[in-house]
Amino acid sequence: MACCPFATLLYAILHAVTFLEFTIGADTLPPNQTIVNGQTLISQSQIFEVGFFSPGASANSFLGIWYRNTPDVVCWVANRNNPIRDPEGVFLAIDRNGTLVISSAGRVIWSTNSSGRVASNPILQLLDTGNLVVVDEAGESSSRESYIWQSFDYPSDTRLPGMNMVDDPDTGQEKYLTSWRNSDDPSPGNFTYRIENQGLAELVIFQGTTKTYRTGQWNGLGFTGVSANPGPAFKSNSKFKNDELRYSMNEKKDKWNLVYTLPRDPCDNYGQCGPYGICSTEKTPICECLKGFAPKAQQDWDWSSGCARSRPLNCRGGDGFIGVPGVKFPDMLKFWVNTSMNIGECPAECLKNCNCTAYANPYITDGRSGCLIWYGDLIDIREVYGADSKQIVYIRLPVSELESNNNLQKTKRNKKMPEKRLKRRGNNSSTMSHLKVWTRAIFMQCRFPTAARRKNEDLELPLFKLSMIAAATNNFARGNMIGEGGFGPAKLLVNCVGKLVIVRKKICNETRGKLATMIAAAS
């Protein structure tokens, strides 16, 4: 009996050595074997590693996948909603049915759902793509269709190459990225990134249930609202804001390199200019109305109310269309799409329904096939610079608006702020007698212009704080007045900035007490 303890000890040592050899460099885990805290699987080409980890300053543990050379770059987390409070005694195992189980102290912390498929000899394998899969070792095929389970079907916050983000209509399974709550907590945060496909796919970011950004519809070459810039990996919301950050991995420096971030600018914010508004970062202000529309609420300075028709539609045959090129298509809130039609058939189809407000060809490839029709409000439109010239949305307008559009557009485009040459002559002042002041007004507009006025603003003139102007003119004292016109009294300002400028004061939004200032430089 004395040899039994020795034999038991020897068996334990041999078993430990065998298990250690298995866990170092191995990419597979057979049934009834386990991975404990401190042990990992490594993909065949040493790219990815899977095991237990503790993020940031957290004392909790999670099962995750990370780049082997950069352990802090975690791409996938299994038990996001079920942290391991005590890492001692925790292990990952695969049973005979191919189910993965994380267990600790006899309690199941996390497990995979059964696919209903029967495997004679299931194994867990970490692939070089970063995909953790359960396959049947007895099977001849290693294709995606042969996977009993795969981590790519359950994304965390990172999209890796080869990851299919399309929802499965057969099983009802949804696939989307969700931000971490913070750098110490990988549980689902408040922002999600997903593909919406209602006949035309687009990428969308939500904050909770509120849509905050969308790329625009896929047009056959790219998304209508963003330039195509494919990268090896997507990482969503790494700073826990409503941004989609696209990264690429620098293999030499073992770190993420930021490629670009979405949203890129204010015009990427969902519905920035409201219904029938169009956003352009090249304009000041950035919002204006589509042709044939006017601001719905002129007292609103944030443009959230959008625009309304200047003239009502005539649904008895008195309507037509005007093309707006180079824009992100409106959101498909109420729509109809037919991919077998051609663009020439779209107008007649739209005019059949008085609620139809616009149409477009959804694809700029394959001879511009298909017809996309919008019903109701058109929202989230922005200019896209460098967009394909075939990317046009046709807005429905009454014929009366179309007939007057050319003359109206000419008039408004040539319309400038009035220039006044102010002369102030004094009997004993030759300097003032030759002073010529040209007033060119730059002011905060009480409403944003229609699209016919879409011209770059002259931003060369200096802007001053109201407090500085008030101090320089002695609170707009009448003694400093040099003239008066349609915008109110003009004041001469000669100090504070060392320039001669003209300022005007006017209340343009009495209900909200907003104050607009107009500034002009002296010639």
Q: Describe it for me?
A:
With 523 residues, the protein is mostly beta strands. It is built from five helices and 37 strands. The chain has a five-stranded antiparallel sheet. It has a five-stranded antiparallel sheet with strand order 33-37-36-35-34. A four-stranded antiparallel sheet has the order 1-10-11-12, with no helix packed on it. The longest helix is centred in the N-terminal third of the chain and has 21 residues, at 3-23.
* Individual helix count: 5
Number of strands: 37
Rg (CA only): 33 Å
Query: What gap, in angstroms, lies between the N and C termini?
Result: 111 Å
Q: Spans with pLDDT under 50 lasting ≥5 residues?
A: 1-25, 228-234, 236-242, 407-465, 482-523
| Alpha-beta classification | mainly beta
Averaging pLDDT over every residue, what do you get? 74
Integer count of domains: 3
How much beta, percentage-wise? 35-45%
Helix-strand layout with pairing:
Elements (H helix, E strand, L loop, with lengths): L2 H21 L4 E2 L4 E3 L3 E3 L5 E6 L8 E6 L2 E8 L12 E5 L5 E5 L2 E5 L10 E5 L5 E5 L12 E2 L7 E2 L16 E7 L2 E13 L3 E7 L2 E5 L18 E4 L7 E7 L4 E8 L14 E3 L7 E3 L3 E3 L11 E3 L9 E7 L9 E8 L3 H6 L4 E5 L8 E7 L5 E2 L9 E7 H16 L5 E4 L6 H4 L2 E4 L2 E2 L22 H7 L8 E5 L2 E6 L7 E9 L4 E8 L2
Parallel strand pairs: 21-29
Antiparallel strand pairs: 1-10, 2-7, 3-4, 4-5, 5-6, 7-8, 8-9, 10-11, 11-12, 13-18, 14-15, 15-16, 16-17, 18-19, 19-20, 21-22, 23-24, 25-30, 26-28, 27-28, 27-30, 31-32, 33-37, 34-35, 35-36, 36-37
Keywords: ATP-binding, Cell membrane, Disulfide bond, Glycoprotein, Kinase, Lectin, Membrane, Nucleotide-binding, Phosphoprotein, Receptor, Serine/threonine-protein kinase, Signal, Transferase, Transmembrane, Transmembrane helix
Organism: Sesamum calycinum
Protein name: non-specific serine/threonine protein kinase
